[in-house]
Write a structure and sequence with these properties.
alpha+beta, two-stranded antiparallel ribbon, 3 helices, two-stranded parallel sheet, 94 residues
């Protein structure tokens, strides 16, 4: 069974920075530039006092509503486990 999930990364770095990062790490999903932190603020991921960005992973339904999520600033493994669990459960983003 194939989960119908679309992965997208968002960060405040510019497009050229994203391209270099994606090439270096062989990413197979798009990275979106959000230099004004519009999306980052909408998901409450702006860092303390506006510095930096928190790490969040969300499962968002086709209706645009957040179905589930995980915040783990320094523990990348929690994000990986979250995505694996979404795939295993057959999440479709509906």
């Amino acid at each position: 069974m194939k989960a119908k999930l679309r992965v997208v990364g968002v960060s405040p770095q510019d497009v050229d920075s994203h391209r270099r990062f994606a090439d270096k790490h062989h990413l197979n999903f798009p990275l979106l530039a959000d230099p004004d932190k519009t999306v980052i603020k909408a998901y409450d991921l702006d860092g303390p006092l506006g510095f930096g960005v928190r790490r969040g992973t969300y499962l968002i339904g086709r209706d645009g509503r957040i179905q589930d999520g995980v915040l783990a600033d320094l523990r990348i493994g929690e994000h990986e486990a979250f995505v694996r669990a979404a795939i295993k459960s057959g999440a479709t983003g509906k």
